[in-house]
Amino acid sequence: MSVNKLxxxxxxxxxxxxxxxxxxGKIAQFAVATSDKAFKTADGKEIPERTEYxxxxxxxxxxxxxxxxxxxxxxxxxxxxxxxxxxQDAEGKDRWVTEIHCTTFEMLTQRxxxxxxxxxxxxxxxxxxxxxDDLPF
Length: 137
Fold this sequence. Notes:
By secondary structure, this protein is mainly beta. Helix content is 7%, strand content 50%. The strands form two sheets. Strands 1-3-6-8-7 form a five-stranded mixed beta barrel. The chain has a two-stranded antiparallel sheet with strand order 4-5. Strand 7 (75-88) and strand 8 (94-107) form a beta hairpin.
């Protein structure tokens, strides 16, 4: 038995970047920042706040929802799996990137009265039965 599941609660660092593919697939890429608060240990040592940045990928229907509603600064709860991807940079060097492939997210930011965003805490989930596993990423 094995488990690969992540849960994050954080804020978008930028608007989602959308990519369309020839086969009709769509992905949205964005980063989510999570922070641990500063604190003091029992012996008085001060530990500063620490912020981590997570690369998020959502596909197809979730990508459409992310494109339409998610914006920089929005608070979001998401679940997904951790994946590593290897690619070659412009100089031909191998590079690795860590990504979270999101399977569900919940928008937690309250929408402005005049905005058309869905209500806060609306949940969106995508089921994957191996469909579109041929997306080039």
